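Extended Data, panel c. Modelled sequence:
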Amino acid sequence: MADYRTIIALRNRAKKEDADYNLGIIRTHDAFYMESPFAFGDYKKRISVWAEAGVLAIENESSTLFVIGSLRRVRVGSILVAAGNLITGKKGTKNELQKSIDKAIIIATGALVDLQKEEKI
């Protein structure tokens, strides 16, 4: 699970940067090939369960970071950029994606600075 202080720092920095963001539950897992649209069967049916439950996105790396962070007692959070929508099939353009990645980097690095300042207080 993500560290709440890290998530709050990311949210606060996103607000400071006037960035559009969503804060909520992400399904993170290590089953990329089992869960991909190309794996088997009707993937829309498989992911609709998660969408109906209010899950904002599905991704593959954060779960590993959360577990290792917990074991190592390191605060971990994640900031994600959506490349597309599995339900609608809509994908962002290369330019839109790059702008979102650049903004995510600014937010993440700013949140790290904010967390460091918080630690010194």
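The longest strand covers residues 26-28. This feature is highlighted in the accompanying rendering.
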